[in-house]
Amino acid sequence: CIRTNYYGPKRTIEVLLPMLQSSDSPRIVNVSSYLGKLKNIPSDRFRKVIGDVDNHTEEKTDEILNEFLRDFKDGTFVSKGWPPHFSANIVSKAALNALTRVLAQKYPSIMI
């Protein structure tokens, strides 16, 4: 789910970015869902990191996703504030939303 919902779009954008930058009317449209809203994540820390639009980076998103995957793998994800249901979908969509905001700031000449 995270591979498809977050890393898929991220890698596709990385590959297409040079062509987009040379385009007359470049656009990036990422499709997310209501599950990606930060209010769906119990963890205050996650919401704070992902929601900090001015200081957020792709690297911070990747770190948070790696933390989620570790917590999920060892079965502690719910006790650490991750969503108990649809966890991977919620976290990956929130991460995609964060990536979209980061890219919009990083590449103002591209309509994102």
TrEMBL record:
Task: List the InterPro entries hit by this protein, alphabetically.
Answer: NAD(P)-bd_dom_sf
- Record GO terms (molecular function): oxidoreductase activity
Q: Does the keyword NADP apply?
A: yes
Mind listing the UniProt keywords for this protein, alphabetically? NADP, Oxidoreductase
* Entry annotated with the keyword Acetylation: no
The cellular component terms of Gene Ontology attached to this UniProt record, alphabetical and capped at eight, are: membrane
Q: Which family does it belong to?
A: Belongs to the short-chain dehydrogenases/reductases (SDR) family.
Enumerate the PANTHER family for this protein: (+)-NEOMENTHOL DEHYDROGENASE, OS02G0640600 PROTEIN
Q: What is this protein called?
A: Uncharacterized protein
Natural source organism? Opuntia streptacantha
Taxonomic lineage is: Eukaryota, Viridiplantae, Streptophyta, Embryophyta, Tracheophyta
